[in-house]
Amino acid sequence: MSEVAGEVPVTGPPVEPLLRLRGVTRRFGGLVAVDSVELSIPEGAIYAVIGPNGAGKTTVFNLITGVYQVSDGAITLDGTSLAGLKSHAITKRGIARTFQNIRLFPNMSSLENVMVGSDAHHRSSVLSSLFGLPAHRADERDGRERGLQLLDFVGIGGTAQLTAKNLSYGDQRRLEIARALATKPRLLLLDEPA
Predict the structure, then answer these.
(1) Rg of the Cα trace of the chain?
(2) Is the pLDDT of residue 22 over 90?
(3) Cα 45 from Cα 24, distance rounded (Å)
(4) Strand 31-41 relative to strand 19-28: parallel, antiparallel, unpaired?
(5) What is the rounded distance in angstroms from the CA atom of residue 118 to the CA atom of residue 112?
(6) How far is the C-alpha of 72 from the C-alpha of 21, rounded, in Å?
(7) Does 124 score more than 90 pLDDT?
(8) Measuring CA to CA, which residue among 190, 191, 187, 189 is closest to residue 93?
(9) 106: how many CB neighbours lie within 10 A of its CB?
(10) pLDDT tens digits, 38-75
């Protein structure tokens, strides 16, 4: 590193990436679905995982989000291991995803689907919900407002009261993205979004 007269060189510990996969392997019996994946994603970056059908792209997403546990290797978010965490705990830590096959609540409205994502950060208890206490009402109000904003953001604001199963395929994809964004993720994984 060169130094300019009068300036102090900036040094310090290396910046930990937002997400890191080190030697991640997943075996299903004798089949190795993912073998020694190395990936480092800094905060604010956009990456694509590209490969042919059957290459293990969805399996990698499932490992990151806790659907499957790694057979070998490590996955960290901000330097903290995700090993053994369930999907809901990983969502609370800031990773959201969409799925290769759309997974919506088909008989709920678009808005209700997005509000489900907001539940990841609600602070009210089950009792508060059962009795309609102020904390629950505040969470519901905030979830509704955020849901409407996110539906507008993904371009389907006019579908808030429509049943999810009655939306076009493209709008269902957008709805799934809005629901994932409702969890307030630091990292959003889109599995075959197009």
Answers:
(1) 20
(2) yes
(3) 21
(4) antiparallel
(5) 10
(6) 11
(7) no
(8) 187
(9) 13
(10) 999 999 999 999 999 999 999 999 999 999 999 999 99
Contact yes or no for 36/60 (Cβ under 8 A): no
State the pairing for strand pair 187-189/95-97.
Answer: parallel
20, 82 Cβ separation under 8 angstroms = no
Tokens found for residue 112 = 């209700």
In three-state form (DSSP H/G/I as H, E/B as E, the rest C), the secondary structure along the chain is CCCCCCCCCCCCCCCCCCEEEEEEEEEECCEEEEEEEEEEECCCCCCCCCCCCCCCHHHHHHHHCCCCCCCEEEEEECCEECCCCCHHHHHHHCEEECCCCCCCCCCCEHHHHHHHHHHHHCCCCHHHHHCCCHHHHHHHHHHHHHHHHHHHHCCCHHHCCCEHHHCCHHHHHHHHHHHHHCCCCCEEECCCCC
Of 17, 66, 40, 65, give the one whose Cα is nearest residue 185.
Answer: 65
Q: How confident is the model at residue 2 (pLDDT cuts 50, 70, 90)?
A: very low
Query: Which contacts qualify for 161-170: CB closer than 8 Å, 24 or more apart?
Result: 161/109, 161/110, 161/111, 162/109, 162/110, 163/106, 163/107, 163/108, 163/109, 164/104, 164/105, 164/106, 164/107, 164/108, 164/109, 164/110, 164/113, 165/104, 165/106, 165/107, 167/110, 169/102
